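Bit of a strange request maybe. I'm writing a small parser for structure token strings and I need a real example to test against, not something I typed by hand. Could someone generate the tokens for this chain?
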Amino acid sequence: MAPAAHVVESHPVDQLLRSDRLPHIWCPGCGLGPIMNCFVQAMAGSAIPVEKHAIVSGIGCTGRVPGYINIDSFHTTHGRSIPFATGIKLANPELEVTVFSGDGDLFAIGGNHILHATRRNIDLNIICVNNFNYGMTGGQLGPTTPKGARTSTTPNGNPEDALNLVHLMASLGAVYVARWSALHVRQLERSISRAFQKKGLAFVEVLAPCPIGFGRPNDLGEGLDEMHLYQEECIVDDNADLRDCGIDLRSHKPLVLGNFVDIERATYGEWEEG
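Reply from user aminoacidic:
Good idea to test on real output. This should exercise your parser:
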């Protein structure tokens, strides 16, 4: 006779989620669910007490993440997640402060803030979910929209070059720079864990499907189809020349992923002798 099945009543990370706010509001096929799970798993596996974590976001689809995580959370104004996070960190240096926001919030209206926070090497973790458009407000052109891609505001194709986020952040002096996709969950979880360990500004870009706002106008299919795109087109090269890591979906140029930068330098407020 087969032994009785063991029914698991809870999951180890249940206490880190606000279950009363689930299910989430994101569209079917959106990459934010697995990305949030990677963050929670990394947080659960870290040696940092839960009460020492704080998470900050701006406005947008990614801005909803802090509302589902059961730690001190701040949903701030558009483009201002980094100033809020900076204030939290400087007032409470013992906290592990993570900014969790989208490409538009961080690099368009918030671009000036991320530039100077990185230059100053504020001790923050920044997770940028890059879905190549403003998904929440109607699929408009964003700073990371690949050249030639169609959006609601560029129906004939984007005429501009997109920001190469990993190259930009490395050039500004971030102590940790990585890029993964929503498909590469094991690598992403380890990358977030490494960001927790770093002293200084750590940056992780995550490529994420947006099947409604970006996928449909660019004939990418559903969310699963975009995951297949990541499976087929992504390569991992930690030593890649970051100048060549821009994203161009038209040419089938490989999407380069990896842990690109892992260095040490003085954080804001530290004084070096000599």
